[in-house]
């Protein structure tokens, strides 16, 4: 099957970091209305298999463009700037400091016995991480537009860390309240 | 031909009433099951000969025979060993899980760990759990198939003939093994399954079509044995599941059990002596629970001792369980990336939401009154019937589409017993994801891969789905072979794995060993063994199944060829396929099941490329249509 269209063309969005979520969501739903396997439920097995493949491709496109991190990575991939997750390290000293601070806060929270206080601290940390994420997204946008791909890659590595941090906050929160 | 295709939405002629295909939706519940269908645009829950809607999900295998439903339920107290209740809880479970397993204790609430089903369990050679009954060993798949058969028969009676499509609902939280077991049960019962549908999605469909609204819906589904909560966004006929969660081992049965334990305390019973006593106490517990949703207090007597429970005491017993459900709601709201105030409607599903305390706590949590204008017992079956009607092809202009998600992450075992996630939970399905592996020894020709499902970091805490042995890797130096393993989850939430060595293009063969659940041969064997089916029946049934398949193949391929076969295929290719259709039409009426099956398989392979080309054309059209819209919008 023809999987050559890039995700931006597929979902009718210009190839840039800023996307309109309502717009791509609309396109996404229209595409799935045509290609979801349920639309082929009474068709032959071959057509059903083809539909599963393409619907999965549409889903991946949508997931990628919806996520600030995956979208950034995909834009770089389209200009052949592939990120090596195994060997990407963050060398920005200030950001490394921030990472350490966050880890410390997370460690402190897991020691708090009072659930209300723990929740307050979690919310504060979550807010801080989210704010940093927004700043990094802005950075990426500029770097990408100016074709500073090396810097853009470094920003993606940081965005990955922010995402990981957010997951760890969730994990700690559910372990505290379960 | 071309002119015919340009019909305005809503104007293309609907199939004539008597051409409508016979389709039903089945809610295969832990405690009760029911079946519904869309008939002349009305949705009906189908009743049995006595006018009853609910079929108790209970099967008794006594030496006198098999009884299913109400009769079986009333023998539960007298014949506990042969009477299987709540079989849904055993679906897709291994002997270890059910009997001695500490393996899954992480997934079960504390009150479950000492719970034992009071049956005579044994472990089959393949690890599947079975129950010894007076009718011989029975697996959960066979028990469920017996329940499905009764419901399907109800459908045949009401719709006047063989069913052409069935949608069966499962808890959204069901893992791959549980879904597969449900599908196996349907296969054993000889039902043409169009789709496994998640129960909360079905409920949202029932309400969504009722109200024609857009917005975000939370579905709170507390059944007898499972709890699900799902968030859906409804927009222009598309039901998009944002996140789903819950507990596949928490339900109204646990309320009964909590009340029973309280009863034991009051009666000074330290250890429940026999299964019969346990069933008796559970029946009393259930009576107390049901009465207290009407009355302030209720009294039961056990061996001439009267015991009274009031509402406040009851709340004390069940509040911890309800709290587990609201915690799960909180997690799902976070997973869905929304705020609790974004939720426009809350839908209540499942018999256990009749509990006043549950309603009270749920209203409090979501800060709004839940919708309840559809009977919570019926709502899932109604949604399933609507979906079955659409999928079977009775509503060609329907705009409705359900986009479901993978409920639990899929991962692989890595070094040190850790899990590497391949597909995260709450990813919209279908989804395809590839992962690359390499060999670590020179000349290595095989590799084993262990697929698990769950959120935890350790293999031991997740559910083992299958072990795959990749064989036939071309011998190379260590690290030179690149094996691409592709995981595909279809719209039913079922996993399929394939593998290929990239540099040589050699397709590695996969030996799938399901960790739990029946393999294909076992199911075929069960169908053959089924004492209800005499030899002729089996032959007839196999033939009928293949005829239905053949009709579907002929219909869809004929219309595809007429549509764009001339444009996309060479003359030879076109001739080949149309000859094959004619052959199949002939064989359908005159051949045996095996021959028909073989020809269908051959045509399926021969038409693969055509199907892919057709898909490409549709994609191009869709994209062209898109840019046209963009131009006109500017």
* Helix/strand class of chain A: mainly alpha
Order of helices and strands of chain A: HHHHHHH
| Largest sheet entry of chain A | none
**CATH fold naming of the domain at 410-518 in chain B:** Substrate Binding Domain Of DNAk, Chain A, domain 1
What would CATH call the architecture of the domain at 410-518 in chain B? Answer: Sandwich
- Compute the gyration radius of chain A: what is it? 20 Å
Give me the Rg of chain B, rounded. 26 Å
**Mind describing the biggest β-sheet of chain B?**
8 strands, antiparallel
Overall domain count of chain A: 2
Query: CA-to-CA gap between the ends of chain A?
Result: 46 Å
Structural class of chain B: alpha+beta
Approximately how much helix is present in the residues of chain A? over 70%
Number of strands of chain B: 27
DSSP summary, beta strand count of chain A: 0
CATH architecture of the largest domain in chain A: Up-down Bundle
Strand order of the biggest β-sheet of chain B: 21-20-23-24-27-26-25-22
